[in-house]
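Fold it.
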Amino acid sequence: MTNTNQVPKRDGEAPLISLVIPMLNERDGIDALFSAIIEGVKNVPARFEIVVVDDGSTDGTHEVIEEKLKCFSQWRLLSLSRNFGQQPAYRAGLEEATGDAVIFMEADLQDPPSLIAELFEEWQKGYKVVTGVRMSRAEKGMRRWAFDLYHVLFYRLTDRVMPANSGMYSLIDRVVVDHLLKTPEINLFIPALKNWFGYSQTTVKYARLDRAVGQPKQTLRKLVNYGVDGLTSFSDLPLQWI
C-alpha cells in the first residue's frame, strides 16, 4: 500500500472532519455531549460534520438529536430499524461520512471531545491513524478488572495489532475509511482493523472519564461477544487451543 503524508484539502478550504457518534437511549446526555463538542472544536482550523447513528433507541433520543443537530451547519442523522450493536452502528455512520478524516466517538463523554484538537494536530503531521490511548479509566470493581484483563490478553494474543488500552476513540484519514468500507468482513472489529492496514499511525494519551449521565448500554453479554469477535478476528490462538 502506498503511504503519503499530504493532508487532503478541498480547493483551498479547511479540511472537513466527520464525527461519527452512535447512540442508544442517550436522551438525557445529549445536551452535555453537544456542548462539549462545540467547546472542543472551536479552536480547531477545520470544518466539522456530525454523523449521529440512532441504534434503535426507545427513549425519544431521535427527536432530541434532530433538534440539537440544527446548531451545526453540516449534520446527518441515521435511524436504524432496531438495535444492531455498536460496531454495525459505527459502520453505518462511516458509510455516510464525507469528511477528509473521520473521528469515532461515543456519546457518554467518557472519551472527552477536548481531545479532538490533539487528534487533528497529529493528523496534520501526516499520520493516517491517530488512536486515543487510555492512561486511566473511571470504571471500578469487576467491570474495571474485566476491561484491564481483556486489554492485556488482546494486546498479547493478537501480536500487538492495535495500541494497548485503546478503543474506538480515534481519527482515521479518508484513505483508511475507504479501505474499511471495502472490507468484506461481517463482524467488523474497527478498533484493531483501522490499525491493521499498515498506514502511518500514532497515539494521543488521555484519562477516560466516568459517564456523564445514565448507565452503560453495553451488557455483559454484549461485551463478551464483542471481545470474542475481536480475538477471533485477529488471532488464531483460540482455534489452536480448541
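Residues 51 and 76 are 5 Å apart (CA to CA).
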